[in-house]
Amino acid sequence: MNFLDGEIRDKSHLYYFRVQYEDTDIGGIVYHAKYLNFVERARSALIRKLGFPAEELLKKNLSIVVKKLYCEWQNSCTLGDVIYVKTNLVQCKKASLVLNQLIFSDHDNKKLSETEVTLCFLNKNMKATRIPESLLKSLNSILPH
């Protein structure tokens, strides 16, 4: 069922889904905060696609948390639209990484939003810790920066 986690194409992770009723306001327009949910879902799918599902990281006392996030909304989408999140690695350090995540309409490839997010890893004591070497290797080999 790995297809549920999107695909790696041309050094980008692509994650497709349909806008559901729960994502919209009463007029069928996607509520602005839902775009953050969409990129979070795509990030989780990417990590899983690379072989590091969050539940396995938690068993190793590791958590991935958002340290910094910048989002610019450019166009809206509506109920029933098929959209996709395109994720690229911008920077990778020992304990953090920066991802650029663009949301597009699948219908006309119109850019809906752009997010840049810095993620860091925490240990069981909630202290910053190194990203597992095997994950760093996977990120660096699959996604350009």
Report on the structure:
- It is a single chain.
- With 145 residues, the chain is α+β, with helices and mostly antiparallel strands.
- The chain is built from three helices and seven strands, in the order ββααβββββα.
- It has one domain: Hotdog Thioesterase (Thiol Ester Dehydrase, Chain A), CATH 3.10.129.10.
- It starts with 6 loop residues before the first strand and ends with a helix.
What overall form do the CA principal axes indicate?
Answer: globular
Radius of gyration: 15 Å
Structural class: alpha+beta
The overall strand count is 7
Secondary structure: helix percent: 10-25%
Low-confidence stretches: none
Mean pLDDT: 93
Give the end-to-end Cα distance, rounded to a whole number of Å.
28 Å
Tally of structural domains: 1
Largest sheet: 7 strands, antiparallel
**CATH architecture tag:** Roll
Q: Indicate the CATH class.
A: Alpha Beta
Kindly estimate the percentage of residues that lie in beta strands according to DSSP. 35-45%
**CATH topology category name:** Thiol Ester Dehydrase, Chain A
Keywords:
single chain; 7-stranded antiparallel β-sheet; 145 residues; Thiol Ester Dehydrase, Chain A; alpha+beta
How are the SSEs placed, and which strands pair?
Layout: E1 7-9, E2 12-18, H1 34-49, H2 54-59, E3 63-73, E4 82-92, E5 96-105, E6 111-122, E7 128-129, H3 133-142
Antiparallel strand pairs: 1-2, 2-4, 3-6, 4-5, 5-6, 6-7
